[in-house]
Structures are given as C-alpha cells and as structure tokens.
Amino acid sequence: MTKTKRFEIILILVTVLSLGAGLMAGLLTSRLPVGPATQPVPVISNPLDHTPLVQELNLTTEQREQMKQIWESAKTGAIRTYTDAENLQKDRDDAILQILSEEQKAQFQRIAKDYADRYGQLQASRNKVFDQAVEKTLALLNDTQKAKYREILRTHVGPSAGSAAQKN
Question: Given this model, what pLDDT does residue 79 score?
Fold first, then answer.
C-alpha cells in the first residue's frame, strides 16, 4: 500500500469519524434551547417547587434558587461547548481542504453536502416526532392545563418547542 493511498484512507476515516462525532454532538444538544440561557423568564411560581427532586431533598427556597443558578449555568456552558465544537469542526474542515487537490476538494464538498442534507432530514424527523407528541399531549388537556403546558414548553424547551405548542 502506497503512502498516498494510506493517507487517503486515513483522511477519509478521520472525516467519517468527525462527521459521526458532529452528528452525535448535534443529537445530544438538539434539545437545548436556541436562545441564550440567561434571558429572563417571567415565572409566577417557581417550577422547581413541585419537582420530585425538590420534594425528595426537601430543599429550602435558597437551595432551590442556587440549584436553578447551577443548572442554568451548566446549560449555558453546554451551549457554549457545542458552539465551540462546531467552530473546531469548521476549522478542521478548512485545514483539510487546504491540503486536498481540486478533485479531492470537490469530493469532500459532496460528502459534506450529503452529510448536511441527511443531518437536516434527521432534525426534521426529530422535530416531527416531538410536534406530534406535543399535539397528542395538548389534546388530553383542558384549556387551563394547555396554557400551563405551553408555558412549561416555552421556558424549558425554548422557542423551538414545536409548532403545536404555538397554536391557540
């Protein structure tokens, strides 16, 4: 096996592994809200007051607030690391493109486009499943429950909570 052939195989393998890692990172973080995690959210009552964790641990109001800050900070950090990972992947792709021939660059671009198209289809499929679940849940609820459920979706899932949650 020639050095060139071995290099091409390694390059393809690294690209496939990187694309797979990007896909997994996207799937894992796709449930995070798109907007900034620090935007103020009007809350009539603290949603943490009624969670099993709060009840099991018998948390004080101060502890609930501190826990809320801890997890909002963690969410912000997770979003930041996802953005950093996207930038790192772009930098790697740009570096790879610089060492490829024109024919290899065209092939790489086709692979990248196919990946982006397939990833978009996966996201659309995931969103459809989520929207259907929201619609089914809303059908079970009365008007007061629907309003509360929509607020929960808005505050915990974010603006991408699904088209069904946006309907009246």
Answer: 86
